[in-house]
Design brief:
Blueprint: H1 12-20, H2 23-33, H3 39-46, H4 50-62, E1 66-72, E2 77-82, H5 84-87, H6 90-105, H7 150-168
Antiparallel strand pairs: 1-2
Length: about 180
Amino acid sequence: MRKTNIGAMDCPIAQSLELVGEWWSILILRDAFQGLSKFDEFQRSLGLSPTMLTRRLKTLVRNGILYKQAYCTRPARFEYLLTERGQAFFPVLLTLLQWGNQALAHEDIAVVPVNRRHAAKVAPVLVDRDTGEPLTHLNVTIAAGPRAGKGIKRRLETRQEKLKHHDAYPHKEFL
């Protein structure tokens, strides 16, 4: 069965998922942010087959999220390090961790984010850079950008009509 290429969709969420949406890729990035960089370190951490790990690492390198750097010449050994694009994924990973702790873990939380300097637990919140206002589904929507094609504009116009209806009946839940 051939995988659908959602990266061709006119949507930054779909395009991002095409780059890192496969769960092993996200777990590799999780480990890279924790300082792992060598093939055997990733394999030991994830318990992933060498073939699958090789495939995922190649994809992350090809997509500019990790880069490959030799650390030994005989035998040839490489480490996989985060690029600037890869480092920019950290807020996504942190938000996923926070969501998992809130939605799934309940009282039995296994992993918490802490400040590196003083080891105090942190509580991530997504806020607007200009106003400092917390961003939620209640005060943020999606609008067509300068490159949006007819399909995305049509989809977003339909969504805006539904939102107007929701605003008229605020007791109804709407995502």
